[in-house]
Amino acid sequence: MSAKVKDRIATGVIIFFSVLIIAILVGMLGYIMVRGISHIDWHFLTSEPETIKAGGGIGPELFNSVYLLILTLIITIPLGIGAGIYMAEYAKEGRITASIRLVVEVLSSFPSIVVGLFGLLVLVNTFNFGFSVLSGALVLTIFNMPLMVRVTEQAFHNVPIEQKEAGLAMGLSHWKIITSILFPVALPAIITGTILAAGRIFGEAAALLFTAGLTTPKLDFTDWNPTSLHSPINPLRPAETLSVHIWKVNSEGLSPDAAQIAAGASAVLVIMVLLFNLLARWIGRLLYRKFTSIK
Amino acid sequence: MNEKQETPLLFRKHRAEEWIGRIYTTFCVVLLIVIIVSIVYYVASKGVATFAINGVSLSQFLFGQTWQPDSNKFGALPFIFGSFVTSLLAAVIASPLSVCAALFMTEITPNWGKKVLQPVVELLAGIPSVVYGFIGLSVLVPFLRDVFPGQGIGVAAGSIVLSIMILPTITSIATDALSSLPRNLKEASYGLGATRWQTIAGVVIPTVLPSVLTGVVLGMARAFGEALAVQMVIGNAPHIPTSLFESASTLTSVITLNMSNTVMGSVQNNALWSMALILLLMTFVFVLIVRLLERRTRI
Amino acid sequence: MKFGKSAVLALTLAFSVSLAACGNNNNSSSGSNASDNASNASAASNTASTAPAETSLSGSVIASGSTALQPLVDQVAKKFSETNSGVSIQVQGGGSGTGLTQVSEGQVQIGNSDVFAEEKIEDAAKAAELKDHQVAVVAMAAVVNKEVGVTNLTKQQLVEIFTGKITNWKDLGGKDQGIVIINRPSSSGTRATFEKYALGQKTEDLKGSIQEDASGTVKKLVTETPGAIGYLAFSYIDDTVQSVQYEGVDPTTENVATGKYPVWAYEHMYTKGDPDAATQAFLDYMVSDEVQKGDVVELGYIPVSDMKIVRDIDGNITNK
Lengths: 295, 299, 320
What we know:
The structure holds three protein chains of three kinds. By secondary structure, chain A is mainly α. Chain A has helices at residues 3-36, 42-46, 59-90, 95-109, 112-126, 133-157, 161-169, 174-203, 206-209, 242-252, 258-294. In chain A, helix 1 crosses helix 11 (258-294) and helix 5 crosses helix 6 (133-157). By secondary structure, chain B is mainly alpha-helical. Chain B is built from eleven helices and two strands, in the order ααββααααααααα. Chain B has a two-stranded antiparallel ribbon. In chain B, a hairpin with a 4-residue loop joins strand 1 (67-68) and strand 2. Chain C is α/β, with parallel strands linked by helices. Helices cover 37% and strands 22% of the residues of chain C. Chain C has twelve helices and 14 strands. Chain C has helices at residues 5-20, 34-46, 70-83, 96-104, 117-120, 124-129, 155-162, 189-199, 215-224, 253-258, 277-286, 289-298; strands at 59-65, 87-94, 110-113, 130-144, 152-153, 180-183, 210-211, 228-233, 242-243, 245-246, 264-272, 302-303, 309-311, 317-319. In chain C, the strands form three sheets. In chain C, strands 1, 2, 3, 4, 6, 7, 8, 9, 11 and 12 form a ten-stranded mixed sheet that branches. The radius of gyration of chain C is 22 Å and the shape is elongated. Chain C starts with a helix and ends with a strand. Residues 11-54 of chain C have low confidence and may be disordered. Chains in contact: A-B, A-C, B-C. Chains A and B meet through helix 1, helix 3, helix 4, helix 5 and helix 6 of A and helix 1, helix 3, helix 4, helix 5 and helix 8 of B. Chain B: Part of the binding-protein-dependent transport system for phosphate; probably responsible for the translocation of the substrate across the membrane. Chain B: Keywords: Cell membrane, Membrane, Phosphate transport, Transmembrane, Transmembrane helix, Transport.
C-alpha cells in the first residue's frame, strides 16, 4: 500500500470518527428534545409536581436549582477569586505554592459522590443543617471553588505585564494594582469561566442527593421571610433540584406520566445548560470587545 | 519597617490596603486547605472504622469476592474490579475517538473543525450525568439487549455511557497539546516529502503522546468517580463479571445504592465509607500519575 | 495523619462558625399547653377541613427517612399544617437508614422506616430508645414479564428461582425462556420483607442478577426484559407487568388485611422516646380515619386500621 493510500484511509478514519461524535451529540440532543419538548409548556414549568396524579410540573424544582446556584455563586465567587488572586499575585514559587496547587488539583478531581458523603456526614448530621439548601450550596462550593481559583489565576496571568508595571510606576500598592488595574482586565475571562462552571453546578445530582435532599416543602411565593419554612428563600429547607428530580421521577415515579415528566425535565435541564454555554460565549465576546475598544 | 511618625500618609494607607489584601486572599487559600483536610480526615475516620472498630480484615475487604453484609462478608473486590474495568474500557473506547476529533480540529480542517466540533465537544461536557443515565437506560440498554446476548444491562453499557462522558475531557486536552505544537516540526516533516498521515503518525503523535495520556488519565479519573449514570445501566450485581454483557458493580454504584438504606455506625455503612475512602485515595493516585506525565512533557 | 483529631475539628469548626449561628433549630419547642393538645388535635383533624380554629399547638417537626413512605407523610403534613398553622412540619427523604440514624441522634423528631428499627440498628440499647408508630401497611408481589406465561408461584418455586436452582421458565410451566432476576440491593427494606415473608429465608446475590433500589426502574426493567422477575409494592403494579399469585392467593388488599397473603410490612414512624405535643398530634392525625381512609388508600398503602391481624417483629401473627 502506497503512502498516499494510507494517508487517504487515515484521513477517512479521522473524519469518520469526528462525524460520529457529532452524530452522537445530535442524536442525544435530538432524542431529549423530541421526547421532552412536547411536554414543556407554561403549566409544566410553573406548577408543582404531583405524586400520583398526572399533570405534575417542575416549578419548585426549577426554582430550587436556580436558587441553589445563586447561593453557591454568592459563597464561591469571593472565596474563589480571593484564592485565585493569592495564587497569581502573592504566592512565591516554592514548596508551599506547589502544594497549594496540588490541593486545588486534587479538590477539583474528587468524585462528586465522595464530596456529597462528606456533606452528609459533616453538614447534614454533625452541624445539623439537615437536608437543606445551605448544605447543598456548601457542598457545591467545594466543587466550584477549585474551578474558580483556576479560572482567576489563569485570567490574572494573561493580563499583559506592562499594565502591572504601569501601576507600579505610579506608586500604587500591590493590592490597589490588583483591584483597580489587573482585576478589570481579568474580569471577562473570570465571568466566562464562572458561567461555564455554573452550568456544571446546575446539572450536579449525586452530591445533592445526600445534602439538599429529595423533597421540597410547599413553597409560598408571597412569603419572603427567610426563616419561614414555606418561604422559597429559607436556606434551611430541603430542596430537590431539577437534576435530582429527574433521577427521582425516573427511579421512583408513581404518577402515570412519570416518563414524560422525566423527559420534559431532562429537556429543560439540557436547554438551561445550553443557555449557560451560549451566555458564557456571548458575554465573553461582548466584554472582550468592550475592553479592547477602550484601549 | 518601623511604624514611625514621619511615615508619609500615603505610605501608611498603602500598607493598610496591602494587609487587607494579603489577609483576605490568604484566608481564602487556607480555607481550601481546611476543606481538603477535613474531607480526607472525615472520610478516612469513617472508612478506617470498618477495620479498626468492626474488625473486618483489610485483606478480606480488598481481595474478598463475597459481599454478603448479612453474614458479615465484606469482600469489595468485585466493586473495585468493576470500577477499574469500566473506567479502563471507557478510556479505551474514548481515547481513539478523542484523538481523531483533536486531529480533525487541528490538522485536517482547522477552520471548519474548530467551528463545529469544538462547540459539540463542549456541549457534551455540559450535559448532566443524570441525562446520560436516562438516555443510557432508554436507548443504549434496549439496543444492547437486542443485538448482544444478555440483558443489555452490564459492563458494556456502563463503559459506553462513561466513554461518551469522558470524551470531552480527553479531546480538549489533546486539542490543546496539538495546537501548541511548534509549526516547524510539522513543516520539517512535510519538507521531507512525508504525507499528512506519515507526519501525524511519525512526528505529531509521538510528540504529544504524554499530553494525550494526561487527558486519558484525567478522563479515567472522572469515569472512576462517576456515580448515577453508571448505577442506572450497569446492573449492580456484587460479582466479578465473566462477560461484557453481564451485570456488575462499581464502587460508586454500591455506595449510592446502599448508603441511604443503612444506619450510620453499622458495619455495612462503615464498609461503604471504606469504599469512599478507596475512591478518595484513587483520586490522589490519578493526580500523581498526571503530575508524572506532565513532568515528562516538560523535559 | 499528621493532624490530630482536635486540630482538624478546630479547623472545620472555624470554617463553619459563622454558619453554625444560623444552624437548624431542631429542638422542637413543644407547645405551651402540651397536655390537652394531643387529643384536641386528633379530634379536630377528623373534621379538619371545616374547623381551622385549632391553632393552640405550636412547634416544629422534622421527619426524615424512607423514600417509600415519604410521599404519604409529605401529603399528610401539608394537610396538617393547614389546620395547625403554628406547627411547621418538614418532610425529608434520605432512606430508612438515614431516618433511623437521625432520629436516634436526636436530629429529627420522626424517623420514617420501612423496617423495624431493631433490624437496622446494631446497638440494641439505641434501638430500644426508639418508639414505634405504625402508620400504614405496604404489601408487595412478585411480578414477571408479561411474556413469561406464569401467573402463580409457590414459596418453594420462588426460593428455587431466587437461589438460582431453576433458571428457565419452562420448568415452571411457562415459556422456554431464561429467568432474569431483578433484585433489590441487600440493604433494601423491600428485599428484607420479600425474603422474610415470601421466601422465608435470606438469599445470596446471584451472579448476573440485576439489582436496582428504585421501584420505577425495577418496573421498567421487568416490563422490557424478556424472562424477567422482580417484586414491587402494590402501588407500582399496573398492566405493564404480570403480578403473580403467591401459593394460589391473589395479591390483593383484602387478602393482606385478612392475613391470607403474607408478603407485607408495616411502615414505621419512629420517635425517640415519647414525642412532644406537636409531633404526637401529627402522629395521631396520621392514624386518624380521615388520613387512613383517604390519603393512605389513595397512595396505594393499606390502612393499619383495616388490618384484621397484628404481626410482631418476629413474624408472630395475632388476630386483632
